[in-house]
Every structure is written in C-alpha cells, then in structure tokens.
Amino acid sequence: MKSVVWLFLTCFFGSSAALACSSDEDGCVESEQFQLSVALGAGQRSNPLYDGESFPMLLLPDFSYYTDTWFIDNGTVGYSLAQNDQFAVSLVMRLNSEKGYFQRWFAGNVITMNSSGSFLPPEVETGAERSMSRVSVEHVKKRPTAVDAGLQFNWFGEQWQSRLNLWQDVNSKYEGQNASLSWSRFWPLAGGQFDLSTSLYWKSAKLIDTYYGVGEDELYYLERYQGRASWQPELRLGWQKALTSRWSVLTFYRYLHLDDAMTDSPLVQDDSVQTWFVGMSYRFY
C-alpha cells in the first residue's frame, strides 16, 4: 500500500505535460496563480452524534494554487490528466472528513488542534447485561484518520458545472470506498450571484462500520451495530455579492440527509447535518 501512495504522490509532482490554460478563458484558473480569501461571520455545522459538538464557523479560509499539471484546492491535492474548456479529469488526494464528527478540531474541520476529553465510561451496575441503545461519542474508541485518493471528473457549462469523485482509502484505515456526484447551477440575483447545488454521496459498508459501527472490541455494555453502505443526498443554497474589488457579502445553507444505514447506529441521534453561514469575505489575492 505504501508503494501505491508513493506512486500517487510522484504523479502529482511529475514533470509531464498538460493542456495549457490561458488566463482570458471563462471558468479557467491561470497557471501558477495563488488565490486566498477569508470569510468572517457567524455560522455552524451541526453534529448528528450523541454528545457530538457542533462545529462553529466564524472564520472560513478559501485558498487554491494551480499549475499546468498539479493543483491544491483547499483540502484537495490534485494532478491533471486531461483538460479542456468543457471537461477535466484529475488524480486527487484528501483527508477523509468523517472523523470530523468525532473530533471537533480535526484537520478536516478547517483548523487543526489537539482535542482533550474524558473517555471514562458512564456509571453502570456491576454485571449489568442490558446494552445501551444510545451511545455517546465519548465512550467509544478513537476513530482513525483516513487518507482518500482517487479520480475526479469535472464538466463545465456557461451557468453550471458538475463533478464526479471516486475515492479509495489508501492508508488502510477503513479499507473501503466512497463516491459523490454533484451538480451546480448559477443565476444573477439581487445584484449578486445565487447558486443551487445538489449532491449524492455513497459510502461503503466498511467506511460506515469503521466510524459508526459498534463492535465487540468496544465497551461491553454498548449496543452492537455493524454498518451498511449508505446513500446521502445533499442540497446547498448560496448567495454572494461583490461590494468592492476585494470585499463581498456571502451566505449559504446546506442540508445533508442521513439514511437508515447511519441512523440505525446507536451513535447517531439526528437524520441530518445542517450547515449555515452569513458573513463578509475578503480576497487577498
């Protein structure tokens, strides 16, 4: 498996040729151009787990860097295999974000910070045989940090774009796969730009079982659960309006629905994850 990761990273930083992208093309990022903006405001992402903490969204960085062959776009590193005005295919790598529900300051939640907390079990009677039907995230073992790698396909239109991602766990933490298909449409509205996005996520049974299953190696009084493959649809609404060349107002709302493969887990109390943000964005570059 290490050889696979090494080969993948070698492809990222190799010197093979790629299609050139001129700066005057619509929807095209100029080669070797660094972009950085920061949004300040109020918002949060809910946590569907019992005793899981919601993630506050007060400062949202947005950064990217593209060359003719490879790119960094927020948490994704990629290598372009082919591209033109309407289509692109890339090799990509990222941290899997599933651990973010279990550890508030996980790197996948924008900021990295060491988390601390009590992992002592709740008080139970000695010899109790009844399993707990509701399980706190504080009473299960630590969930792993997984690295995903795979393929990304992008399609571009005048007022829309679509993306397909196929991911494989490459550091053998959950030994499974996940995928997503998304479509976005843009309209001018109230002097700004309104966007509507729909996405469908598929997560393999091994991924769900690793993060939301409760196995024999957990504390004996917890209800056992073996994860199944999960389908999770999402809807996103957003609006952004430029005030100056650098300042703009930004707001968005996302609703992710969790199916029975998730909600049947004794760790999960809600059937959705809701994210919202209202604030101002400043573009540095």
Task: Give the SSE map.
Blueprint lengths: L1 H11 L20 E13 L9 E2 L2 E8 L3 E4 L2 E8 L3 E9 L51 E10 L3 E10 L7 E13 L2 E12 L1 H8 L17 E13 L4 E11 L2 H4 L8 E12 L2
Antiparallel strand pairs: 1-2, 1-3, 1-13, 3-4, 4-5, 5-6, 6-7, 7-8, 8-9, 9-10, 10-11, 11-12, 12-13
3D structure, described in words:
The chain has one domain (2-119, 136-283): Beta Barrel (Porin), CATH 2.40.160. It has a twelve-stranded antiparallel β-barrel with strand order 1-3-4-5-6-7-8-9-10-11-12-13. It has helices spanning 2-12, 205-212, 260-263, and strands at residues 33-45, 55-56, 59-66, 70-73, 76-83, 87-95, 147-156, 160-169, 177-189, 192-203, 230-242, 247-257, 272-283. The chain is mostly beta strands and 285 residues long. The two termini are 38 Å apart. It is globular and about 60 Å long.
What is the CATH homologous superfamily assignment? monomeric porin ompg
* Number of structural domains: 1
Oligomeric state of shown chains = single chain
Q: Based on the coordinates given, report the CATH architecture.
A: Beta Barrel
* Elements, N to C (H/E): HEEEEEEEEEEHEEHE
Shape: globular
The biggest sheet amounts to: 12 strands, antiparallel, barrel
* Total strands: 13
CATH-defined topology: Porin
Q: Helix fraction?
A: under 10%
**Biggest sheet: strand arrangement:** 1-3-4-5-6-7-8-9-10-11-12-13
Per DSSP, the total helix count is 3
- Report the span from N to C terminus: 38 Å
Class by alpha and beta content = mainly beta
- CATH class, anyone? Mainly Beta
Uncertain segments: 1-27, 111-130
